[in-house]
Amino acid sequence: MSIRTLVDTVEHTEALSVPARARTIPHVLSIAGTDPTGGAGLQADLKSIGAQGGYGMAVVTSLVAQNTRGVRSVHTPPSTFLDEQLQAVSDDVTIDAVKIGMLGDAETIRTVRRWLPRSTGAVIVLDPVMVATSGDRLLASDAEDELRALVPLADLVTPNLPELAVLLGEPVATGWEAAVEQGKRLAASTGTSVLVKGGHLEGALECPDALVDASGDAGTVSVVGGTRIDTRNTHGTGCSLSAALATVQTRTGNWHQSLLIVKKWLRGALERADELNVGQGNGPIHHFHEFVPGPIPAPPPEERPFSEQVWELTTSHRLAIETLGFVRALGDGSLPPEQFAYYLAQDAMYLRGYSRVLSRASALAPSEAEQLFWAKSALSCLEVESELHRTWLTGRGQSPAQGRVTRAYVDHLLAASANAGYAVLVAAVLPCYWLYAHVGNALHSQWIGNGAGTDHPYANWLETYADPAFAEATARAISIADSCFAAAPPADREAMIEAFEASAWYEHEFFDAPTRLDLRDSAKLP
Ligand SMILES: Nc1ncnc2c1ncn2[C@@H]1O[C@H](COP(=O)(O)OP(=O)(O)OP(=O)(O)O)[C@@H](O)[C@H]1O
Ligand SMILES: Cc1ncc(CO)c(N)n1
């Protein structure tokens, strides 16, 4: 037998060859008890497996009410249920490694032993848990014989010094040399490799572990040294070590190499343990100290198209328009003719102003296509206006004066055309297209739905605004506004939204004005 004393360095780790494995993410099953504070047992195992790049699975032996200060109570479900959990995993998943931790009592041990052949080919690490860091017992004293009988079925057993003594039926070793000798005896009697852990060495500055390899060059002992880290946060160190070893072993196939890799990680986890601040007793180690979370990304800029944003923003204006008495009456034909006449007269005045504003949009347009679009729109406004005069307004007596709403709306648009840039102007003119198309379409479909009676007094009007050409122009105006918005700096984007909203508000006022008109006194126009 030879004793190789190695310094636990990364250099050694990297010098050793890593055999290729079929699975890059090993499936590792922990069979253990729980720790609701997450530092030991199953919870620690899952973290350790994950930290080593494995896929962790967990079968619960006992539910343990414990924290960093101690164990309060243990609940062990019937062993038939343990068996069901084990079968559920092995019926479905190929298991690359099994870590066995707290088994609690003899019946639990027997159940696991009966199942173990189902994990043929898997690496098996047995952490013979008997007593928690806090000193509480986690294994019934009459179960020690059963646990001893389980050792030969594992590839590696990882006892601390008191557990090593129990497994051998000997007194606890008083020094490191004696402990290593005990490890050798256990390996020889069981044929299982033994990791003798030095965490419990009284008063030692070192915290060595000795690996007694029972495979290959049987009985080879390699000691991995390491300074003792000054922390009280060592809860679950043994659980974490064994689960990590099981995981790494699936990739290296060499216990010594696995130990070097895992001890380096464990040292970091102990050095950074105090950062966790979990509990008031012996806190957990920092399993994921090597993981650096990325910065929290800044909220993405508002990427939704302008049209989507403003349509949503002006929902209440739209609803208000749809439910206006004027709009309903226009739709069902019950609108008094004098109100319709007033409305059309205002609309004709509005369209003259609107046409000027569209011409300005044409003048500011960045491309010939847009210039043409706005110019054509300006022209068709004037055409609609003269058509209104020809068909509706001529011969109906004196036209009313320009109403306040009409003036205010046109002034708002003229102000935008005089003071704002192209993008804001486009946003300001858009509601006139869009809300008209929206209302016109709604009323038109209603009319069609009701049989499209030719006796509807406003059928002509309904047809104008439900016209496909108008819908096409509206879609084009929307798409121009969206492109402007996408290219606009934040201040202009805000101004575009404001301009759209103001125009949408005026649209509502405009539809409401005829109903508010006191026809007997046209001097007091709304
Ligand atoms: N303070 C420490 N500094 C450095 N390494 C330590 C320290 N305490 C324990 N270790 C290492 O942690 C691993 C677990 O050792 P330990 O002997 O404490 O096992 P354990 O008693 O089973 O653990 P647990 O605390 O989970 O019951 C070993 O590799 C040991 O060398
Ligand atoms: C469940 C469980 N397993 C193992 C230990 C040993 O740390 C513990 N405290 N709890």
TrEMBL record:
<keyword id="KW-0808">Transferase</keyword>
<dbReference type="InterPro" id="IPR004305">
    <property type="entry name" value="Thiaminase-2/PQQC"/>
</dbReference>
<dbReference type="InterPro" id="IPR016084">
    <property type="entry name" value="Haem_Oase-like_multi-hlx"/>
</dbReference>
<dbReference type="Pfam" id="PF08543">
    <property type="entry name" value="Phos_pyr_kin"/>
</dbReference>
<dbReference type="GO" id="GO:0008902">
    <property type="term" value="F:hydroxymethylpyrimidine kinase activity"/>
</dbReference>
<dbReference type="Pfam" id="PF03070">
    <property type="entry name" value="TENA_THI-4"/>
</dbReference>
<dbReference type="InterPro" id="IPR013749">
    <property type="entry name" value="PM/HMP-P_kinase-1"/>
</dbReference>
<feature type="domain" description="Thiaminase-2/PQQC">
    <location>
        <begin position="326"/>
        <end position="513"/>
    </location>
</feature>
<keyword id="KW-0784">Thiamine biosynthesis</keyword>
<dbReference type="InterPro" id="IPR004399">
    <property type="entry name" value="HMP/HMP-P_kinase_dom"/>
</dbReference>
<feature type="domain" description="Pyridoxamine kinase/Phosphomethylpyrimidine kinase">
    <location>
        <begin position="35"/>
        <end position="286"/>
    </location>
</feature>
<comment type="function">
    <text>Catalyzes the phosphorylation of hydroxymethylpyrimidine phosphate (HMP-P) to HMP-PP, and of HMP to HMP-P.</text>
</comment>
<protein>
    <submittedName>
        <fullName>Bifunctional hydroxymethylpyrimidine kinase/phosphomethylpyrimidine kinase</fullName>
        <ecNumber>2.7.1.49</ecNumber>
        <ecNumber>2.7.4.7</ecNumber>
    </submittedName>
</protein>
<dbReference type="GO" id="GO:0008972">
    <property type="term" value="F:phosphomethylpyrimidine kinase activity"/>
</dbReference>
<dbReference type="InterPro" id="IPR029056">
    <property type="entry name" value="Ribokinase-like"/>
</dbReference>
<keyword id="KW-0418">Kinase</keyword>
<comment type="pathway">
    <text>Cofactor biosynthesis; thiamine diphosphate biosynthesis; 4-amino-2-methyl-5-diphosphomethylpyrimidine from 5-amino-1-(5-phospho-D-ribosyl)imidazole: step 3/3.</text>
</comment>
